Amino acid sequence: MGRNGVTINFSGLDDLVKGFSRQPAVIKNEATRIINTVAGKVEKTAYQNAPKETGYLSQHIMAEPKGALNAQVIATANYSIYLEMGTRKAPAQPYMGPAVKAHEKDLYTMLSNLLKEGMR
């Protein structure tokens, strides 16, 4: 399956995690779990938001863990970017961007709470 379409990546925190008093590996593992959880929520919301004319697009939206502190949510339908962004002839029907926006505060809050705990 090709990797055309829309990709949203969640990544970061490696350097930040190293400076905490709690075990950096424990914090890193928990942050990875949080990132993967939020990516799953984004996937579900993007699925709900996606235009359902044939159902093909919504069936090809998936969250993928990409190792420590990194996950991505992708839409692999070859026309997914055209629906998200629109074209000269067709207006945008955003589904991925609003899904990310809907969960960015969740990600920030969960990671902030984890990092606050890590400083103790």
Question: Could you explain how this protein is built, in words?
Answer:
The protein has 120 residues and is α+β, with helices and mostly antiparallel strands. 52% of the residues lie in helices and 14% in strands. It is built from five helices and three strands. It has helices at residues 14-17, 24-49, 56-59, 80-85, 96-118; strands spanning 6-11, 61-65, 70-75. A three-stranded antiparallel beta sheet has the order 1-3-2. The termini are far apart. The relative contact order is 0.24.
Task: Detail the topology: elements first, then pairings.
Blueprint: E1 6-11, H1 14-17, H2 24-49, H3 56-59, E2 61-65, E3 70-75, H4 80-85, H5 96-118
Antiparallel strand pairs: 1-3, 2-3
Helix pairs in contact: 2-5
Percent of sequence in beta strands: 5-15%
Largest sheet: 3 strands, antiparallel
Give the termini distance in whole angstroms. Answer: 45 Å
The outline comes out as elongated
Would you list the SSEs in sequence order as H and E?
EHHHEEHH
Class of secondary structure makeup: alpha+beta
In terms of per-residue confidence, which ranges show pLDDT below 50 for 5 or more consecutive residues? none
Neighbour order of strands in the largest sheet: 1-3-2
The helical percent reads 40-55%
Write down how many β-strands occur, each being a DSSP E stretch of 2 or more residues.
Answer: 3
Question: Rg, please?
Answer: 16 Å
Number of helices: 5
Mean pLDDT: 84
